[in-house]
Structures are given as C-alpha cells and as structure tokens.
Amino acid sequence: MQHSINAAASQSSRGGDTAESSDTKKGKKRGSYNCGRCGLPKKGHNCNIKTPVSTTTTTTTPVDSSLSIVSVPSAVSVIRQPPSNLRRALSFDGLDDRGSGLDLLRLDDKAYGDGDGDGDGDGDGDLLDLELDLEPDLDVEIDSSGLPGNLRWDVLRRLPPAGLLSAAKVCKGWRETARKLWKATEELKLRVPVKVHVGFVASMLQKCPGILRLSLRMESDFDSTMLACIAFSCPNLESMEISVFDTATNRINGDELGRFVADKRNLKTLKMEGCSNLGGFVLSSSSLSTLWLSDLHSLSKMVFNCPQLREISLEFSCQENASTDLITMIEGLGRSCLKLQNIHIASMRLSHAAVLALTAAQLRGLRMLSLVLGSELTDASVAAIASSYPNLELLDLSGSGISDSGIGMICNVFPETLKRLLLALCPNVTSSGIQFATAQLPLLELMDCGMTICDPNFPDPTTVENNGKSLKTSSANLQHINQKLIIKHSRLKKLSLWGCTGLDALYLNCPELNDLNLNSCRNLHSERLLLQCPTLENVHASGCQDLLVEAIQSQVTKSGPQCFSCYR
Prior knowledge:
Layout: H1 4-26, E1 66-68, H2 97-100, H3 104-114, E2 129-132, H4 149-156, H5 161-167, H6 172-183, E3 185-192, H7 198-206, E4 213-218, H8 224-233, E5 239-244, H9 254-263, E6 269-272, E7 281-284, E8 290-296, E9 302-305, E10 311-316, H10 326-336, E11 342-346, H11 352-361, E12 368-372, H12 379-388, E13 394-396, H13 404-413, E14 420-422, H14 431-440, E15 446-448, H15 462-465, E16 483-488, E17 494-496, E18 503-509, E19 515-517, E20 529-532, E21 538-540, H16 546-559, E22 565-567
Parallel strand pairs: 3-4, 4-5, 5-6, 6-8, 7-9, 8-10, 10-11, 11-12, 12-13, 13-14, 14-15, 15-17, 16-18, 17-19, 18-20, 19-21, 21-22
Antiparallel strand pairs: 1-2, 2-3
Helix pairs in contact: 4-6, 7-8, 10-11, 11-12, 12-13, 13-14
C-alpha cells in the first residue's frame, strides 16, 4: 500500500511528464522533476536505490501527542524474517506471541488504516512511530499553500520520515514546521534495512536532540559503530530496545555494552536481542531499572551493580556446550540488586542449586518469578520457592520436572496472591493437577498448560519450534492418554492447552474467559467439548479436527459474544 506522499510524488511525476511533452512542442527539453527510481524530488536528492522497486512505509494515525513514522526505504523488497519475538515472561499480554513473530509487510498494510497494525481502527499500541511532547506554540501565518502553522503541524506529523524530509524542501514554512517536529520528538522507532548505512540512522537521531526512547529493529548488523552513534546522538536516552532479525548479527561485546550503560546516566530500560557475542560483562548503573538480554551464550562473568534494578530477563541459547555459571550469577543478583521484583531466566542449565541460591538472596519485593526450561527443577525446588517468596503473583516453571505434588504446594502457599501460573512442557503434570490448581487458586487469571497432557503416538509440536530437536519428555507421558479436563473458574481470562494431544474431553465454565488456545489438540473430540464461556472472543484451533472447529464455532456463537475469532 503506497503512502500518500508517494502518491503525491507519482502525481507530480505524471505532471512533470505532461509538462515535458508540452515543453517538447515548444522546443524546450525539460525532464521530470522527480527521481525515476524512488519518486522523490530530484533537487538535493541523492538516490541510493539501484532498481525501480516500491518501498514499504509504515504510517500511524496518532493522537495529539504522537507523530507516525517509520520505516526507512529499502532497496530490495523481499520477505523478511521477523525478530525472534521472545516469550515475554514478565508481560503475558498474548499467550501465542511466543511463536508467531511480527510480519512486517502485513503490518505495513494494516498500519495505514489505524496506526497500530492490529486492524481494529483504534490506533492504540503503535509499533512504529515517533512520539512528540506537547504541541509547541505555532504561528498562524499562512504559507504559500494556504495552511496556517497549526494545521501544517497536524498534517506533517502524520508523514513517515522520508515524507517529512521531502516536505521540508517545499517552502520555508514547511521547513520550519518539520524542524520543530523533529526537535519535539521524544520517542523514535525505526526499522533499519540491510543496505542502510549507519550515517542514515545518525542523521535521523541528530534531528531529534530531545529523544528519550529509542527502538531499532535491525536487519543489518548491530556493531560498536552504531552503538557509539546512539551514545553520541542521544545524550538523555532513558530507554533503548534493539531487535535483531535473522539476517543480522549483534556484534556488541561485553566491554562495549558495559561502557554504554555506565555512560548513560539517565538510562532506565535496556532490551537487547542477539547477545551471543557478549562473552562476559559488568553492568554498573545507578538508574537502570529494567534489563532484558536474550541469546546469551557461555558468559565468563556476569556482574550487575544496579541498585535500582527491578526487572531482569535473561534468555540463554539452548546449546549443549553452554558453560555459564548461573549459581554465581544469581548470588551476585542477590547481593547487589535488592529491589528486584520481576525475574525471568530461561536456560537448560537451571538446577535446584540455582533455585537455592535464589531463595538465599531473600528478595523481599519479588512478585514475578519465571524459571524456564530447567528440567532439573523438581517439587523440592517448588518447596524452596514457596517458603522464601510467599507473595508471588506470577510463577512460571515451564519445562521443569515438577509434578502434581508441586502444584499442591503452589496452591497451599499462593491462594491469595497468584494470578498467573505457567506450567507448559511439564511432562509430570496431569489433568488432575491442572483441575486442582484452578479449583484452589481463586485469583487465577492466566494459566498455560501447553504440552503437559501428551499422547506419545502423536508427533511433538515443539520439534518445529526448536529447529527439529524435540524437548525432553518423561515416560509419564505414556499415561497421558484419553484424559478429560473440567475447569470451573470465575476469574480465569486466558487458558492455553496447546499441544495437549492426550486430551479427549474438555468442559469449561469460565464466565470471564476471553482467550482459549487449543492448537494441536488433535485428539479432542467435538462431542466431548462443552464451552460455557459467554465472553470468549478468541479461540486458537490450528491442527484440530474440522468437526471440533465447527463445534467450537457453534457453541461460542450460541453463548452470545458479538465479536469472535477462531484461528486455524
């Protein structure tokens, strides 16, 4: 979908061609005023596009405090692989985001309509935009186009970066308004294509001297040059998020990251993907409160001198030769980050000893704990957690070895606090344990039991998600055949049973349930399904029988929601 600025450029181009033919009749030889490759005005324009392909731009329809922008032109229009959209263990807004990723091309098409890419027309949740502070005082002088200053502001702030740069060349009034727009920017979100040089990013950042929040989605490599550019151009940076596509590599090492964090005294949030080249790091900051690092591998040292740190997420690569000492790392967190409230650690090297190190830290403010892929975590680990942190609101032990006994401990300790319980890929958990949890935890709003009740006769859905390597399962799965699940809960809003191939009967009475994930529940029979969920809006049924999908649609339609979606 072409943005309006491109449409205008095309019209100008057609106008130029008309003028050309007219001038030819008069004996003058005058070419088009617009570039033949990208359609932008030729004056002051140095085109980097070698072939005449259309560029994809993203637009939003912002409210008074935001300006829509962003995707920089790419020379080649190809299908790009999205970032590795990590499981957001500390903000479970969508259960199925873990494997879906972000389709940029489809997002670009949707975003022109409502600004957030979700196609709902509400304009919320903008993924690519540039936010501004309060609208400055603008003169009411009428420019050559007949627009007063405040109207120019309202029009130009809706343009993408390339359009805003072009608009600044129209006249003095437009140039001044564009300058004020850049200067008022507080948040910038950019996609950086493969062939875009660091100089382009530098020029964008230098136009926004007051930028506080920066988000880059890198299709090209992210290296020390880019990091230095950010450090120089954004002196007051408070938040930085780096997403890395499959086509790119994050080349930052631990020393470079440590210097950046130490120099940025206002930095409060740092989220970075693809951190496989860190090697080791020492992070010292008196302001950092949120830290997310993913794809970590074989770190020689991890030191956190961040007294204000409240949320940390560390995702380690699933390589067998990893050698990171998690116990020492957790002990260090306990000594220097006493204000931690949310902890997420995903590593196959998680062990009961690591849990004991965490419980010894006595983090009194801890409210969310996520220890994922630790197959060596057992019911004893649950007992240690329950005895040290009785006020947890979220507990994620997905991929662990806990059993129904561990669930019983959870229900005994957290009945008045726990709202989110995630036990996906726990092969020792049965339908009885799941039913007991929903009966004993009255505040529960989200529960994920994916791949717990599995029939060994069906292929493992996780083999595709883990590059063909199946996650370890227990022999207890042999007993997880033809099980039924009955859940009655007054507050449950999201339930995930993805990959429960051993489940053949499901009865739900959940008046607040709005999202149900039944992906790959291949053995679930339509005649053994009963959904008494009047507010159910989304059902995910990919890989299910056709009769089951029809039964879901029939039962949910009768329940009465006006807006219902069944994803296959």
